[in-house]
């Protein structure tokens, strides 16, 4: 009997569920009952963080600093001086790029003074006409991947200009153009360091795991404290958020090379530096550039959120529009962000996939055709902008720049379209909405909140134990314990409820739709393109349509999460099914399986470890969306994090809340990953 | 070539290994110290160590081609990497032209590799972002040779390996055989004295492999490098080597000339390899001939001493008298009879037991 029990995992799971049910049934819900809720023993921790950061910033290690305004030396703390220098440095770069695109005087002021600029108006930097930037980007697109990309880039840039979003779009872009290279640089260095030094890798790995799951908001709060608010703070938060994937992909790319490449370099007599710059990094070029692509995507995902701490650009406009429930405007801006995201994504991918060609025997013109083309474009566009002065004598010179909100707008039509949907489908939407909230969401939420803490621990640690033994059980337990000891266990349960409902639906959608689409080459291509495209959308964008349809309710949040989180489930299902070896398929065919048998007995078991990793990603996606859902109005951890953004002493709370969210993600990650790896090993897929 | 070696034997060996051990694992060194030179692979494995090379000692002389033969996991590549110091040996001494390379610092090592060593890799290990010419010129470039000079040198190498006209191709545009030619050219561009080849032809198709082996022999007949060649292919080893070291589980089972290995396998393991070998294709006349007896009546024709049996078997087998074996100068150096040929080719198969006893 006991032998049978040891072998059959299903029996173990059944026993676990029985215990879980009994615990749920018999534990008395009372505040004083330790089995019901653990006491918030970690309550002091956020306050302690606040105090330490305050001390670090404003008291620790005072240094003498010369203040040019009062022409005297002053005592100032080291750290705040240090962060101020970094802020100034980054702000200068952002301003510099911004003024190339839009014109201005701040860069010149940095080297002179406001008085000087006022006295010499000619010194103001003129911005480039939008036609130059749009045309230049089109040429770059053509150079990277030919006509189709050029068309996409050209049309997107034109859309942005014509719809009067040029100014904020360029502000956003300038911000990305600073944050992305910095992230790439830091990521590259850390990745290489981790590659060369096992200890560094061991230290970085958990940090990277953590960084991927901690919600965006949580990064904003400490950055705000250390660096103040403004574009630079947004850029710094973005850098912190965007660097981890770069580190990961650099490390992955370098590891994938195999020992022979490095050995060949060493036997050629390379010094360490030559080995790195001439052999390793160029050979891992593709993976590293995929990392660059990821960085750019992360930067754009941060754009809207960075505006919460003062970054200028499309993000702040989008936030305002959403706050006013101006869906038409929000959609227009949203499309701009999406277009920029898609354009940058496709361009950086094209760069990664581009193989350098050898131009040894080409003429000067052929070698430099793109630069020459750009030079010609530059002259023509400047000419056009000059002529534009006379075409539009009063008002705006549209050939130079289309001022903010003075372009075309279809916001009114979009708004009336939304109104029409509301009028026509009001009852259908309302009925669905009410049904979902009353019959599904609220009961589930109540069930989650009615779960004694001991039951939750038993369930999760039990699953961990059955799947991966004592080690996994203890890891999961430790992660949960951290949350349970803060005062936010109930909020965490709400986050978990939103997440698990959505992950369940996303998973079902992902696996079924993915399976159906994988049946045929054309639909496979379609669904992968769909995933590629929708994945580039900054997560915030998903809130626009759901708010339009369902207003400010939990339904809206859940639907947004489902749409967003089903992407990885879909992708991994399709990829997993496609990776089933051909010979196995043939073996199945020769054994005479039918379609359903093939799926159930061959494809699904073989691809399920990969799909499980997809579900893991789904959890990560869902968590990040749950937190962003706070913008719509939820009552979970995200709402508290959002709240601590505007709280003077919010750092401690914000950080600990972020770590709580990460703990949920890591606990599930731990279980799913262990299981997937075991299955992979058992199937010999590694 | 083996006669050449005999003359240079008195000289200092180019490469000398003295009880080299390579053991992977955290506590390899302390384990080795305790073991006192007697390494039992099974015991080490139980302690979490893997024995790569177990007490390897041998010399390689100038112009000699030593092949290390072994199956995967036998430690042959590890031994090669110890000698090129791509990995550090756990214990023992390795001398390159009298200098202990285990004592060299990084700078000396780079200097040594830049001037004395070249290496060819199993999977070519070409730089994908550089053209054929740039790949070949790479060792010169890292050394600091001027671009003009290194391009000129690289062009010579391109001609040497027969890739003329493909200088501006990228590795991905070449076939496997062509890629390995680039690898060979790259390893030779600095004119090294010592040439390491790590299973250079294993990733190639059989026909191409044969072609590359011929190419390799042609190059060596021109260049006379000191070569350490690793392979898992016994036929390849017999075909190319001056001497063969057969490795198993990190131990060198036998180190001898191809003929001696085929005729007198030292261990059961080696004998298994030699069983299937077509001897007439491997053994040269000189390795099976008897002493020349001027009193004996000989047949009218002679055979050269350094050809494989196969090429002259018909003549010898059809002759009723012993055939004279002559050296390059036409001097008689031995005699061979049909009976001896028959015995060498078929004797061991039919009367295994008594053969061993005698």
Tell the overall outline of chain A.
globular
Detail the poorly predicted runs of chain B: 1-10, 351-358
SSE topology string of chain B:
HEHHEEHEEHEHHHEHEHEEHHHHEHEEHH
> What is the C-alpha radius of gyration of chain A, as a whole number of Å?
28 Å
Describe the protein.
The complex is a heterodimer of chains A (686) and B (358). Chain A is mainly α. Helix content of chain A is 78%, strand content 2%. Chain A is built from 29 helices and four strands. Chain A has helices at 2-7, 9-26, 44-58, 78-102, 106-111, 114-119, 130-145, 147-162, 166-196, 198-213, 216-227, 231-256, 259-267, 272-283, 285-306, 314-323, 327-353, 364-367, 369-391, 411-449, 453-485, 489-517, 521-536, 543-550, 554-578, 582-590, 595-628, 637-645, 650-683; strands at 62-67, 72-77, 103-104, 125-126. In chain A, the strands form two sheets. Chain A has a two-stranded antiparallel sheet. Chain A is globular, with a radius of gyration of 28 Å. The model of chain A has no long low-confidence stretch (mean pLDDT 86). Chain B has 358 residues and is of the alpha/beta class. In chain B, strands 6-7-8-3-9-10 form a six-stranded mixed β-sheet, with helices on both faces. The longest helix of chain B is centred in the middle third of the chain and has 18 residues, at 206-223. The model of chain B is unreliable at 1-10 and 351-358 (pLDDT under 50). The A-B interface holds A 258, 260-261, 263-264, 266-272, 274, 278-279, 282-283, 285, 355-356, 358, 360 and B 81, 84, 86, 106, 110-111, 113-115, 117-119, 121-123, 125-129, 131, 138-139, 142-143, 168, 170, 172, 183, 186-187, 190, 196.
């Amino acid at each position: 009997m006991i032998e049978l029990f040891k072998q059959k995992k299903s029996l173990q799971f059944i026993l676990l569920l029985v215990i879980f049910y009994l615990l749920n049934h018999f534990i008395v819900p009372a505040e004083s009952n330790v089995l019901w809720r653990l006491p918030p023993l970690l309550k002091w921790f956020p306050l302690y963080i606040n105090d330490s950061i305050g001390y670090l910033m404003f008291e620790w290690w005072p240094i003498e600093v010369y203040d040019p305004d009062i022409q005297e030396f002053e005592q100032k703390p080291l750290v705040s001086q240090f962060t101020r220098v970094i802020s100034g440095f980054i702000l200068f770069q952002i301003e510099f790029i911004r003024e190339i695109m839009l014109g201005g005087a701040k860069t010149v002021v940095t080297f002179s003074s406001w008085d000087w600029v006022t006295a010499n108006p000619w010194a103001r930097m003129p911005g480039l006409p939008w036609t130059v930037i749009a045309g230049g980007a089109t040429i770059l697109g053509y150079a990277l991947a030919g006509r189709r990309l050029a068309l996409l880039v050209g049309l997107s840039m034109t859309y942005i200009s014509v719809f009067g979003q040029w100014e904020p779009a360029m502000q956003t872009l300038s911000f990305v153009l600073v944050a992305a290279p910095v992230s790439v640089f830091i990521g590259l260095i850390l990745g290489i360091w981790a590659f060369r030094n096992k200890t560094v890798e061991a230290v970085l790995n958990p940090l990277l795991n953590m960084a991927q799951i901690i919600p965006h908001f949580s990064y904003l709060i400490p950055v705000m404290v250390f660096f103040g608010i403004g574009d630079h703070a947004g850029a710094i938060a973005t850098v912190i958020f965007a660097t981890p994937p770069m580190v990961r992909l650099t490390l992955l790319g370098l590891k994938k090379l195999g020992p022979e490449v490095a050995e060949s370099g060493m036997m050629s007599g390379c010094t360490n530096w030559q080995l790195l710059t001439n052999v390793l990094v160029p050979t891992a070029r593709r993976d590293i550039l995929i990392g660059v692509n990821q960085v750019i995507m992360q930067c754009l995902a941060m754009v809207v959120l960075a505006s919460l701490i003062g970054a200028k650009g499309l993000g702040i406009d989008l936030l305002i529009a959403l706050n006013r429930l101006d869906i038409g405007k929000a959609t227009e801006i949203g499309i701009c962000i999406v277009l920029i995201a898609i354009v940058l994504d496709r361009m950086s991918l094209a760069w990664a996939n581009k193989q350098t060609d050898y131009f040894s025997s080409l003429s000067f013109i052929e070698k430099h055709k793109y630069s020459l083309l750009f030079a010609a474009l530059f002259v023509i566009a400047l000419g056009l902008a000059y002529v534009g002065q006379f075409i539009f004598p009063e008002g705006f010179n549209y050939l130079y720049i289309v001022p903010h909100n003075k372009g075309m707008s279809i916001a009114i039509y979009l708004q009336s379209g939304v109104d029409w949907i509301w009028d026509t489908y009001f009852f259908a939407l309302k009925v669905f909405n009410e049904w979902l909230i009353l019959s599904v969401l609220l009961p589930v939420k109540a069930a989650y909140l009615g779960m004694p803490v001991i039951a939750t621990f038993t369930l999760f640690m039990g699953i961990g134990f059955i799947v991966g033994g004592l080690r996994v059980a203890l890891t999961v337990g430790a992660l949960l314990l951290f949350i349970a000891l803060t005062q936010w266990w109930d909020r965490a349960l709400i986050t978990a409820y939103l997440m698990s409902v959505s992950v369940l639906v996303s998973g079902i959608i992902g696996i079924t739709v993915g399976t159906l689409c994988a049946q045929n080459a054309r639909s496979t291509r379609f669904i992968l393109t769909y995933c590629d495209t929708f994945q580039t959308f900054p997560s915030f964008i998903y809130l626009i349509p759901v708010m339009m349809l369902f207003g400010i309710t939990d339904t809206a949040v859940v639907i947004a999460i489902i749409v967003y989180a089903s992407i990885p489930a879909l992708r991994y299902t399709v990829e997993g099914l496609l990776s089933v070896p051909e010979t196995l398929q043939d073996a199945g065919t020769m054994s005479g399986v039918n379609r359903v048998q093939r799926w159930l007995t061959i494809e699904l078991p073989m691809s399920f470890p990969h799909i499980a990793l997809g579900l893991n990603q789904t959890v990560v996606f869902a968590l990040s969306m749950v937190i962003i859902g706070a913008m719509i109005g939820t009552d979970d951890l995200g709402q508290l994090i959002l709240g601590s953004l505007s709280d003077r002493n919010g750092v401690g709370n914000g950080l600990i809340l972020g770590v709580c969210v990460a703990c949920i993600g890591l606990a599930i990650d731990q279980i799913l990953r262990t299981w997937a790896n075991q299955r992979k090993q058992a199937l010999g897929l590694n | 070539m083996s006669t050449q070696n005999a003359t240079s034997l008195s000289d200092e060996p180019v490469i000398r290994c003295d009880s080299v051990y390579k053991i992977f694992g955290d506590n390899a060194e302390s384990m080795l110290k305790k073991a006192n030179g007697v390494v039992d692979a099974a015991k080490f494995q139980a302690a979490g160590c893997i024995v790569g090379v177990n007490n390897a000692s041998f010399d390689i002389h100038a112009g000699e081609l030593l092949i290390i033969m072994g199956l995967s996991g036998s430690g042959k590549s590890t031994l090669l990497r110890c000698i090129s110091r791509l990995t550090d040996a756990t214990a023992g001494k390795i001398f390159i032209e009298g200098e202990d390379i285990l004592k060299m610092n990084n700078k000396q090592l780079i200097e040594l590799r830049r001037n004395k060593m070249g290496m060819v890799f199993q999977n070519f290990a070409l730089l994908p972002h550089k053209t054929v010419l740039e790949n070949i010129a790479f060792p010169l470039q890292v050394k600091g040779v001027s671009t003009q000079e290194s391009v000129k040198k690289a062009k010579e190498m391109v001609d040497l390996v027969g890739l003329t006209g493909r200088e501006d191709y990228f590795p991905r545009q070449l076939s496997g055989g062509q890629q390995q030619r680039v690898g060979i050219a790259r390893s030779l561009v600095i004119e090294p004295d010592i040439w390491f080849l790590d299973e250079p032809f294993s990733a190639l198709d059989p026909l191409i492999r044969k072609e590359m082996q011929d190419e390799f022999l042609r190059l060596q007949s021109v260049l006379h490098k000191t070569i350490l060649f690793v392979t898992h292919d016994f036929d390849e080893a017999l075909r190319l080597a001056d001497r063969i070291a057969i490795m198993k589980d990190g131990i060198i089972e036998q180190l001898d000339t191809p003929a001696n290995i085929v005729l007198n396998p030292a261990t059961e393991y080696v004998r298994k390899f030699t069983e299937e070998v077509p001897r007439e294709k491997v053994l040269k006349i000189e390795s099976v001939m008897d002493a020349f007896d001027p009193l004996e009546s000989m047949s009218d024709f002679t055979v050269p001493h350094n050809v494989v049996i196969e090429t002259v078997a018909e003549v010898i087998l059809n002759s009723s008298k012993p055939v004279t074996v002559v050296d390059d100068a036409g001097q008689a150096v031995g005699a061979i009879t049909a009976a001896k040929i028959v015995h060498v080719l078929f004797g061991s198969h039919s009367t295994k037991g008594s053969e061993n006893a005698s």
